[in-house]
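Appendix C reproduces, verbatim, an entry submitted by the partner laboratory led by Prof. M.T., so that reviewers can inspect both the input and the predicted structure.
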Amino acid sequence: MPKIAKRVAKSREGLDRNKLYGLDEAVKLIKERASAKFDETIEIAMNLGVDPRHADQMVRGVCNLPNGSGRTVRVAVFARGAKADEAKAAGADIVGAEDLFETVSGGTIEFDRCIATPDMMGLVGRLGKVLGPRGLMPNPRVGTVTTDVKAAVAGAKGGSVEFRVEKAGIVHGGVGKASFDAAKLAENIKAFADSVAKAKPAGAKGTYIQRIALSSSMGPGVKVDPATIIA
C-alpha cells in the first residue's frame, strides 16, 4: 500500500463515518488525526437547504472568530489620501489607487483580502472579472467596502472570515489551526456556525442547516451533530 494511502487509512481508524459526533468529541478526533508536518487548518463544511441560483436564497457574510484564524492574511486596500494613510497605519500590506488597479488588472494578485473605500468602487468595479472569481471583490455586506478602513484591516488581520454559499448549497470556512486549544477551536466553530445561521436568507425553505462536518487540511471528515454547535 502506498505511503499516502497508509496514512489516510490510519487517520480513519476508530472513526464511524455514519455517526453524528458531539462538537467536543469531534474536535478531539480531528486534532488527534492532524498529523501532517505543518500546522493544519481546521475546516468546517455546512450543507444548507438553499438553492443559491435564486437571489433570495444567497448566503453571504463575515464572521469574526473570537480566537483568530491562525492564518497570516495579506490585505490590500484601495484608498487615497488620509484613508490610504489610515490603511497603512493599520497594517495593510498593499495600499493604492490607480497604481494598484493597474497591478491587479495585469494579473498580479498578492493578497488574500481586498478592502475599498466607497469612493474607490467606480475603479474597483472594473476589476470584477479578475477579483470576483477569486472571492476577493469588496462588498459592503461583508464590511470590505467601508470608510472605517482601520477596523476593516484590523478585522481581516485578526481573524474575520468571509463565507459565501457555493452552487451545491455548501458553505466552507477555516476556523483555526490544529495547534489551537480544543476549547478555543470549539468557540470559533460555534461563532462561525452562528454567523451562517444568522445569515439565513428569506427564500430558504425547510431545514436550513442540514449537515455539518469538520476536517483538518489532510485529515478525514467528521460529521457533527448540529444541535451541539448551534444553540
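The longest strand covers residues 41-48. Additional entries are available on request from the coordinating office.
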